[in-house]
C-alpha cells in the first residue's frame, strides 16, 4: 500500500457540471485514476484531463459491469499503485450510492479515504423541474425511497407511513416497480389523484419532466417510454410545477444555455 495513497469518494451531482462542488472539480483535475459510475454524465466526464486513467464500473438493473465486492477490491488494489484515486458517483455517495459500503471496506483494509458530498438527484432534479420538495400548506416533510431491493427481492416498505398526503415522496431507481409502488400507495390510502411527476435525465440538456397523477404513474411511464436515470415524485407540491418551470422558461429570455430544448409534458 502506498503510504500517501488516498481514495476520494466523490459525488458528481445529478449531471449538470456547474453543480459540481469546487472540491470535486479540483480532485477530477488532480486524480491519477478515476473509477466512475454509469450515472456520471458525459458533460462531467469531459472535464477529466486527457491522460488520466479511467475505469468504468457502471451498474444497471440486472447488468452489473462489476459487482460491488469487485469494486471494493479494485479500489484497494488501486491504492497500492496510485497516489490519488477518485471514485466518482452520480449524485451523493451516501444517498443510495453504496458509498458507505466502499468506505467501510477501505477502512477495514487500512486505506485512507475521504468522502466528498454531491448534490443528490432528489434535490437537484426536482429543482430543475420546478417542483419544491416542501411548501407551506402542501408538504412539511420529504421522504427519499429506493424503488428496488437488492437482488431483485420484493419491495418491503412501510406503505402506511409513505402514504402521507402531507409529505413529498421521491423514488430513486423505481421505474421497473412503478406499478407495484403506485398500487401499494393507493391501497395504503393515498389518493390516486395525488399529483406526480417523472423526471428523466434531470438537470441536463436531455431533461424531460412529465406531469401526471399517482393513479396514472405507471401507465404514463410506459406510454412516454421513460428510461433511467429517472426519478418519480409524488405529492401535492407537484401541482406547483407549471408555475415554477424556470429551467425551460429561462432559455426563452436568455437566462440560461442548453444545447437541446427541455421537454415538459402533462399527462393526466
Structure characteristics:
alpha/beta, 26% helix, 2 domains, 268 residues, 13 strands, six-stranded mixed sheet, Cobalt-precorrin-4 Transmethylase, domain 1, Methyltransferase, Cobalt-precorrin-4 Transmethylase, Domain 2, 9 helices, single chain
CATH topology of the largest domain: Methyltransferase, Cobalt-precorrin-4 Transmethylase, Domain 2
SSE class: alpha/beta
CATH top level label of the largest domain: Alpha Beta
* Overall geometry: globular
Element-level helix/strand string: EHEHEEEHEHEHEHEHEEHEHE
CATH superfamily of the largest domain: Tetrapyrrole methylase, C-terminal domain
Mean pLDDT: 91
Share of helical residues = 25-40%
| Beta-strand fraction estimate | 15-25%
Number of helices: 9
- Round the Cα radius of gyration to an integer and report it: 19 Å
What's the number of domains? 2
Please provide the count of β strands: 13
Q: Please summarize the sheet with the most strands.
A: 6 strands, mixed
Strand order of the largest sheet: 8-9-12-10-11-13
Low-confidence stretches: none
Amino acid at each position: 500500500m502506498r503510504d500517501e495513497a488516498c481514495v476520494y469518494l466523490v459525488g458528481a451531482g445529478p449531471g449538470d457540471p456547474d453543480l459540481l462542488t469546487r472540491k470535486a472539480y479540483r480532485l477530477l483535475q488532480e486524480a491519477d485514476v478515476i473509477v466512475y459510475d454509469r450515472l456520471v454524465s458525459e458533460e462531467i466526464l469531459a472535464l477529466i484531463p486527457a491522460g488520466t486513467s479511467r475505469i468504468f464500473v457502471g451498474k444497471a438493473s440486472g447488468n452489473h459491469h462489476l459487482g460491488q465486492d469487485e469494486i471494493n477490491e479494485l479500489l484497494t488494489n488501486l491504492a497500492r499503485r496510485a497516489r490519488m484515486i477518485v471514485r466518482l458517483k452520480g449524485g451523493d455517495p451516501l444517498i443510495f450510492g453504496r458509498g458507505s459500503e466502499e468506505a467501510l471496506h477501505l477502512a477495514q483494509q487500512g486505506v485512507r479515504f475521504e468522502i466528498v458530498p454531491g448534490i443528490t438527484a432528489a434535490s437537484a432534479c426536482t429543482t430543475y423541474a420546478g417542483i419544491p420538495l416542501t411548501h407551506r400548506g402542501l408538504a412539511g416533510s420529504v421522504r427519499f425511497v429506493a424503488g428496488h431491493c437488492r437482488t431483485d427481492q420484493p419491495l418491503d416498505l412501510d406503505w402506511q407511513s409513505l402514504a402521507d398526503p402531507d409529505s413529498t415522496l421521491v423514488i430513486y431507481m423505481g421505474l421497473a416497480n412503478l406499478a407495484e409502488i403506485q398500487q401499494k400507495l393507493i391501497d395504503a390510502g393515498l389518493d390516486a389523484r395525488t399529483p406526480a411527476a417523472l423526471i428523466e435525465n434531470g438537470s441536463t440538456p436531455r431533461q424531460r419532466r412529465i406531469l401526471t397523477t399517482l393513479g396514472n404513474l405507471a401507465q404514463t411511464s410506459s406510454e412516454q417510454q421513460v428510461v433511467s436515470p429517472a426519478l418519480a415524485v409524488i405529492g401535492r407540491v407537484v401541482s406547483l410545477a407549471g408555475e415554477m418551470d424556470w429551467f425551460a422558461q429561462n432559455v426563452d429570455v436568455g437566462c440560461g444555455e442548453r444545447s437541446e430544448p427541455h421537454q415538459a409534458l402533462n399527462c393526466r
